[in-house]
Specification:
The protein is of the alpha+beta class. The protein has helices at residues 3-14, 18-37, 83-89, and strands spanning 42-44, 48-55, 58-61, 68-71, 74-81. The two termini are 24 Å apart.
């Protein structure tokens, strides 16, 4: 599902028009980005938790040349699905 389809589905489900739904989605993305930059965790009960995670520098290989390459330290985002989401996607209700 792409962004446009997500906005359309959210608008249909919520009863809001697409313009307001787009604004809500943009606000959500902005807030999540802001909080991740501040190294904060975001937990939505039943859905899951987004948390920033530090990755150490490491060695890897360039797949084209086979040359060793140093990957610098960085922060990534980890998503841990909630119980209800896991049950829903695995067919348990």
């Amino acid at each position: 599902m792409n962004r446009a389809k997500l906005i359309a589905a959210l608008a249909e489900k919520s009863g809001l028009n697409k313009q307001k739904t787009k604004k809500v989605l943009e606000s959500y993305v902005e807030i999540v980005t802001e909080k991740m930059c501040q190294n904060e965790e975001i937990a939505i009960v039943g859905f899951g938790t987004l948390s920033p995670r530090k990755q150490s520098p490491r060695m890897a290989r360039n797949p084209k040349t086979g040359e060793p390459v140093q990957i610098r330290a960085r922060t990534t985002v980890k998503f841990k699905p909630g119980k209800f989401l896991l049950e829903a996607i695995n067919g348990k209700k």
